[in-house]
Amino acid sequence: MRHVHIYLIIGALLAVGLFAAPAQAAPVLCEKYGATTVQSGRYVVINNVWGADTAQCIDVNQSGGFTVTQAAHNKPTNGAPASYPAIYAGCHYANCSTGSNLPMQASAGGFGSLRSSVSMTYPSSGTWDAAYDIWFDPTPRTDGQNTGAEIMIWLNKQGSIQPVGSQVGTVNLAGGTWQVWFGNIGWNVISYVRTSATSSLDFAIDTFYADAISRGHAQRSWYLTSVQAGFEPWVGGAGLAVNSFSFGTSGGGTDTTPPSTPGNPVASATTSTGTTLTWGASTDTGGSGLAGYDVLRATGDTFTRVGGGTTTSFTDTGLTPATAYRYRVRARDGAGNLSPESGTVTVTTLSGGGGGSCSVTPTTQNAWDSGYVIQPVTVTSTTARTSWTVTFALPAGHTITGMWNAGYTVSGGTVTVRNLAHNGAIGPGAATSFGYQASRPAGNTQVPAGYTCA
């Protein structure tokens, strides 16, 4: 079962002006794609019966909301909903509210302070969900279908319906516990379904977006284009109501208290190219709830964010062997407040090998203007093993012309070497070796470095 949030026949609708907001806001909208503005254009209200031909009317509340007064829908619950009546700030298929400052890039300085709040009323009948629909696009799009991420926040639902895709996790955000769902329908859909229903929500937009980024489903370079709150009815829907809605830099929230300082990070499982950090949890007493953590890294004087998430651990990869890195951690809450930074831990990556149990020592046997021979490349193990893999970076323009005592593949600039059947087993303290020859551009004196064994 899933719903698909695609708005159809857009070109024709724009051509006939169905998305154009009337100068005088109508008290009731019954047109299939009827739209009007409230609060002097600050928000747009849309009837938006995009998935059915059944009747639907909404009574618009000029203070910032609407009530579904008629809904004759009867859609199968294993398909798309009938409609998405909603109130929104931003741009939806070229119909834009005023003063929202959207689109806004999620990396912009003001993005973290964007907030929204909603209060809703639900009927006891019908099959529906009550959800925010927050859209992101790789470009500052004001018209057409967004292709980045669709963040859906389900405050409540009734009936046998579920979001797009499948459940991929559970997370505590914005004062509640949420199931996390993911699917792709031409763009990423990340849905948060509250495990205990609520009729109101006040949160920072980045609370949920940062979680989506940490899961690899969204990007900080994308643009927020609209923030919408409404309902997806499959069956019935009369009585669903948005009582109030807000969007802006304050959103009605009053939380100005930052979270507590996280515990100092501790490093473990450090290799030549990565390390894992863990730290003590932060707490938030301001009311908006702990939203997650930022991991900051420096090799010089300046710390920059390299990742984070909602858990108290982070694995940093792609590091340079035999290099010192310093790390700190900070926490952020649902209002965008940042905690003081934790103390610093310094981590020095290994010169080669996988955590000390396996090491690699290459020897340059011969080198000339356009090539070289590396032999032996000695693989030593401190523990018994039945196989081994060595990786190293091949400089640009270099090509391996032969290898003996091992097999290999090349992907991009990374060479992956694997044992043959006769030399995979290495006893504790024992070693084996392989060798190879490579060509290089004339005048280039480089040889590969950064060998890692696993």
Summed up:
This protein has helices at residues 10-16, 205-214; strands at 28-29, 35-38, 43-46, 56-61, 65-71, 86-92, 95-96, 104-105, 115-121, 127-137, 149-158, 166-173, 176-184, 188-194, 200-204, 223-235, 241-248, 266-268, 275-278, 290-298, 304-309, 313-316, 324-333, 345-348, 358-368, 371-381, 389-393, 399-404, 407-411, 414-418, 431-439, 449-453. 4% of the residues lie in helices and 46% in strands. The chain has three domains: 10-248, Sandwich (Jelly Rolls), CATH 2.60.120.180; 266-348, Immunoglobulin-like (Sandwich), CATH 2.60.40; 358-453, Immunoglobulin-like (Sandwich), CATH 2.60.40.
Protein architecture, described:
With 454 residues, the protein is mainly beta. It folds into three domains: 239 residues, Sandwich (Jelly Rolls), CATH 2.60.120; 83 residues, Immunoglobulin-like (Sandwich); 96 residues, Immunoglobulin-like (Sandwich), CATH 2.60.40. It has two helices and 32 strands. The strands form six sheets. Strands 2, 3, 6, 7, 8, 10, 11, 12, 13, 14 and 16 form an eleven-stranded mixed beta sheet that branches. The relative contact order is 0.12. The N terminus is likely disordered.
